[in-house]
Design brief:
mainly alpha, globular
């Protein structure tokens, strides 16, 4: 069941990203997609927060269970998935972050904290298979270079790579039942 949810997350994330890029091109960051959806006549800005909540809430149980099952020495880092989820939910709640300056700072702070905690989890708990996360990051950097948008959309590519690094690290650990 865990692998199914992770694969579902990977597919939903890919469909969302491909749809956004197909309709509007590569955005400067993932949060900008709220305003891209909101700018249309049908005012569908709610899609971004719903997408972010879905991705986070379906990945977090697997992430926490994986962290707890890994080893005793890594159980002290079970807080990192919780902090990441909390920050991502705050990012989803503050999707209309451009309306107030304080909200913008709060939104970006939560996004940075979520990214930092997820990357720290990969480094600390998955150091034996760190090549999975780095491979994903490298693939998205190459994707950014090939689409000639890496320079102006670097944050977007890093955010997408961050999500996929977590997804594929968890998938690798769960599929092969690795004990790290």
């Amino acid at each position: 069941m865990d692998s199914f949810l992770l694969i579902l997350d990977i597919i939903v994330f890919a469909v969302f990203i491909v749809a956004v890029i197909h309709k509007w091109g590569v955005p400067t960051n993932l949060s900008t997609t709220y305003y891209l959806f909101e700018s249309e006549r049908c005012r569908t800005g709610w899609i971004f927060p719903l997408f972010l909540c879905f991705i986070s809430s379906t990945a977090i149980p697997i992430w926490i269970r994986t962290t707890i099952n890994m080893s005793v020495k890594n159980q002290q880092f079970v807080c990192l998935p919780y902090i990441t989820l909390f920050c991502l939910l705050l990012v989803a709640i503050t999707a209309s972050y451009k309306k107030k300056r304080g909200l913008t700072i709060f939104h970006y702070s939560c996004a940075i904290c979520a990214s930092f905690c997820s990357v720290m989890w990969i480094f600390i708990t998955s150091y034996k298979i760190i090549y999975v996360g780095f491979g994903i990051l490298f693939a998205f950097i190459v994707g950014g270079i090939c689409s000639k948008t890496l320079k102006q959309c670097a944050i977007f590519w890093l955010e997408v790579a961050n999500f996929y690094a977590i997804f594929f690290t968890l998938l690798t650990i769960n599929l092969f039942e690795l004990k790290l």
